User: Which sequence fits this backbone?
């Protein structure tokens, strides 16, 4: 991005205002704490729709076994991923998953989310939901998910719940040994030009459909990559990919007439036939440098991929449907996710962009494994402040849970829920992992939002806490007050009836 250094010297106040608003649109104003763009709630109180369209067997072990899966500690040694199940049951895997997709997330769940005051959800998706991207010779995944996604989005839209489409399981696999990546492998292959290219096609298709398909009207953000390999020296090209991800979103928006400041409006109305012409026209007048070779190639491929998806959805694309749409908020894991000199995703921003921080204590390495140490650590953390300093704002906590490395009491879990919600709502808000687990799963106590509500750990109104001062005794600066502030945590008083039958 090249901008003149001279702004503010000779311009009139109006020109200056325009330049400044352009700068703030680009989110490159140094040190600015950008307000969230208007297309998402000013504070997100959300949950993940985990295990719906990317299934993680640990969350629903009984159903997984019923589907034909297996349980094992090392995911390489049994049928523990969608890939492995699809490879084992090639003839009817689609039917097996159709049952899961239609029962794991339903209108009842949407009603419960609405009753619980949830205003946003993050939906983990695999690349295979855009079916033409799958190389069926060596890659095995179920087909048909896109219709369930469209129906689910429609229910969410009706309920006024806004949506982040989270590219959670990427082509080639982005993280080793993880069922959430769709395939369990020791050698992630996502970090190659081929797989970055497939991901850009996915991104283009999701951008088109989010703006044009009426059922996708609740989508405000698309997340590029869930939890990539943490060591940045093992993710070559990832910074360039991040830039091309944003360019792809903005390029699609430009082609279909969603306002992209800095891009002159293209003449004429887009339709399925003139997209190639418009692409050529846009490339020729590209002032923002959107159309790098990988982006141009991905767009060119995305047009027929989009038509394939439209046929699957029995949807006649109406290119005039998006005129009132706000640009998509592009979303990345924050810079704190990777180490070893990672690229800063804020370098990729063109237009509204937000960042996603994940924090789990249960996997170790964060704090000593006891209640005092957890609260001491959490209440004194500065991840949010560090993200703001790094230009990674607005930032939401896209995953967290109540899970611990020790056996937690009910009283501790009330505090643990309060303290996390308090610390994680300092910027754009939070999204719990996950909305539910299988009800017979003992892990549901600490990983299911609905069960946390039922047990009274989580407040009925997500913006509230049982005790807004939960962190006071643990703050280093106020630690001397500790003895005088120790008191019974008021959580137990808020227990309520079992509203969530599941
Ligand atoms: C993946 O699992 C294998 C076998 O359990 C282990 O040897 C390897 O270190 C793991 N790799 C990562 C990156 O976790
Ligand atoms: C999927 O995982 C299997 C088992 O680890 C591996 O052999 C295969 O190469 C992986 N395929 C892809 C496309 O990731
Ligand atoms: C990151 O990966 C590189 C290359 O594989 C390795 O040399 C380095 O030690 C790793 N860093 C950490 C913190 O594991
Ligand atoms: C799109 O791909 C077609 C071939 O499939 C090619 O003829 C055309 O030049 C490409 N357009 C752009 C803008 O790259
Ligand atoms: C956050 O804390 C770490 C040390 O724990 C420190 O290095 C860093 O500068 C702090 N960042 C901010 C923004 O305060
Ligand atoms: C938690 O409690 C269970 C059942 O009482 C016990 O088997 C387990 O060892 C305990 N775990 C820890 C970390 O204390
Ligand atoms: C707060 O106090 C704990 C325990 O004394 C210490 O480990 C931690 O580094 C302190 N954190 C900050 C941010 O000062």
Assistant:
């Amino acid at each position: 991005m090249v901008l003149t250094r001279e702004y503010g010297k000779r311009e009139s106040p109006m020109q200056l205002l325009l330049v400044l608003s352009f700068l703030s649109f680009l989110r490159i104003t140094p040190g600015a704490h950008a307000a969230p763009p208007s297309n998402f709630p000013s504070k997100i109180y959300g949950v993940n729709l985990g295990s719906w369209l990317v299934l993680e067997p640990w969350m629903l072990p009984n159903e997984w076994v019923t589907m034909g899966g297996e349980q094992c500690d090392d995911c390489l040694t049994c049928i523990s991923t969608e890939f492995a199940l699809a490879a084992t049951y090639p003839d009817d895997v689609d039917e097996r998953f159709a049952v899961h997709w239609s029962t794991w997330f339903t209108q009842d769940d949407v009603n419960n989310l609405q009753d619980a005051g949830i205003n946003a959800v993050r939906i983990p998706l695999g690349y295979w939901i855009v079916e033409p991207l799958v190389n069926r010779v060596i890659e095995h995944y179920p087909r048909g998910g896109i219709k369930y996604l469209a129906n689910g989005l429609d229910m969410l839209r009706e309920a006024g719940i806004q949506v982040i489409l989270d590219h959670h399981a990427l082509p080639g696999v982005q993280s080793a040994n993880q069922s959430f990546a769709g395939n369990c492998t020791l050698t992630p292959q996502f970090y190659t030009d081929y797989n970055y290219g497939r991901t850009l096609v996915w991104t283009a298709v999701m951008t088109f459909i989010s703006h044009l398909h009426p059922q996708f009207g609740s989508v405000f953000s698309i997340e590029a990559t869930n939890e990539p390999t943490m060591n940045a020296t093992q993710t070559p090209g990832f910074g360039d990919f991040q830039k091309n991800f944003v360019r792809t979103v903005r390029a699609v928006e430009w082609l279909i007439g969603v306002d992209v400041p800095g891009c002159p409006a293209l003449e004429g109305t887009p339709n399925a036939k003139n997209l190639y012409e418009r692409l050529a026209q846009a490339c020729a007048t590209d002032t923002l440098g959107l159309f790098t070779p990988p982006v141009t190639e991905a767009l060119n491929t995305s047009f027929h991929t989009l038509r394939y998806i439209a046929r699957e959805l029995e949807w006649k694309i109406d290119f005039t449907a998006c005129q009132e749409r706000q640009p998509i908020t592009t979303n990345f894991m924050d810079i704190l996710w990777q180490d070893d000199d990672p690229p800063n995703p804020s370098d990729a921003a063109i237009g509204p962009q937000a960042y996603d921080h994940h924090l789990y204590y249960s996997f170790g390495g964060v704090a000593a494994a006891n209640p005092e140490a957890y609260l001491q650590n959490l209440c004194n953390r500065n991840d949010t402040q560090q993200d703001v300093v790094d230009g990674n704002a607005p930032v939401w906590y896209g995953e967290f849970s109540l899970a611990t490395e020790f056996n937690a009491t009910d009283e501790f879990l009330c505090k643990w829920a309060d303290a996390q919600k308090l610390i994680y709502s300092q910027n754009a808000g939070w999204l719990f992992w996950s909305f539910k687990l299988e009800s017979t799963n003992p892990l549901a106590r600490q990983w299911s939002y609905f069960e946390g509500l039922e047990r009274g750990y989580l407040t009925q109104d997500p913006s509230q806490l049982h005790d807004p001062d939960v962190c006071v005794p643990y703050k280093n600066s106020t630690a001397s007050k500790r003895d005088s502030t120790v008191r019974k945590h008021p959580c137990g008083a808020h227990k309520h009836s079992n509203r969530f039958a599941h």
Summary: The first helix runs from residue 13 to 26. The mean pLDDT is 89.
